[in-house]
Write a structure and sequence with these properties.
It is built from five helices and no strands. Helix 1 crosses helix 5 and helix 3 packs across helix 5. With 103 residues, it is mainly alpha-helical.
């Protein structure tokens, strides 16, 4: 299942067409670095941004796509997407996950 998810996510989403501010404007390499920090404030900051971004998209779509998911599972999926494309924006990885959950 995970391999199907990863392949789908790599080809399913177009590039972002809006300006992203905050943590999401950083690269996936930044996400990975900050998620690996021992400083809980740094880790909390990037994780909170992703959850807020995904929640905002869900609200805009009027689809409860995050129901039944837990935060740690979301973070692990973003970790996988970021490992595959470390140069992409963190927002792009989060958006790809939203697109997958919206199907």
């Amino acid at each position: 299942m995970l391999r199907v998810l990863v392949v789908f996510l790599m080809v399913a989403s177009p590039a972002m067409a809006v300006t992203i501010k905050g943590v999401g404007a950083g690269s996936c390499s930044d996400w990975t670095d900050k998620r690996g920090q021992t400083d809980p404030t740094m880790k909390f900051g990037v994780e909170s941004w992703v959850l807020g971004y995904m929640s905002a998209i869900a609200e805009d779509k009027k689809r409860d796509i995050l129901n039944g998911t837990d935060a740690e599972a979301i973070f692990k999926e973003v970790d996988i997407l970021c490992a595959l494309k470390p140069g992409q924006l963190t927002a792009d990885a989060a958006r790809r996950l939203v697109d997958y959950l919206s199907k």
